[in-house]
Amino acid sequence: MAALEVGDGPSLPMTSPDISEDPGSIIIEDAAAQKREERLRKFRELHLKRNEARKLNHQEVVEEDKRLKLPANWEAKKSRLEWELKVEEKKKECAAKGEDYERVKLLEISAEDAERFERKKKKRNPDLGFSDYAAAQLRQYHRLTRQIKPDLEKYAKLREESGEEFYPTSNSLLHGTHVPGKEGVDRMVEDLEKQIQKREKYSRRRPYNDDADIDYINERNAKFNKKAERFYGKYTAEIKQNLERGTAV
Description:
By secondary structure, the protein is mainly alpha-helical. It has helices at 23-69, 74-97, 101-107, 111-124, 133-146, 152-162, 182-201, 219-245.
């Protein structure tokens, strides 16, 4: 039997099958591409969220630094100023409508709130009475300074007119250069009238009379007898005289 040579017979093609044309491989590649796109999308979302969180964190750090540099009672002052602005707007609104602000304010407060405010006001008792002249002078100074509403335009005008003399020194002579306006004089007169009215409400200490009849056993009983005499003295004067003479029936 003769051996077959390579050149003998028809030659067969030595090509490998095309794998890319396999439907199964196409599906696998599409699924891998979709997973890759999904991962890239999630990565981009995480990157955007990280940048947004970094930006918000920086803003919070800046705001916190601003809050730390503010005074300790800044929040209370801010709330107070906002409340005062609302009150001023309400007053202007009532004045435009021709209404009384105090009356409108009372109409918006319930009876329970009014009673609670009144109890707090009585409990607070802002008038501490007289302790010494220095404390009285300090309270008067604080009360007067709270009423001051500076006129910045007039202040600037006076500063321009006075020049360097506006800032006095130990050698400055500014006596008689400042002339108060009519509003300032009226405000001073009104304040003096209020002081006179307030002073009239104080009861002065009554002197002790040694020659008066002693019809009490202690200080509390003496005050009660004075009140009773003031209200019922004219009705019981005759009965009291009969008891003292011993002619009462």
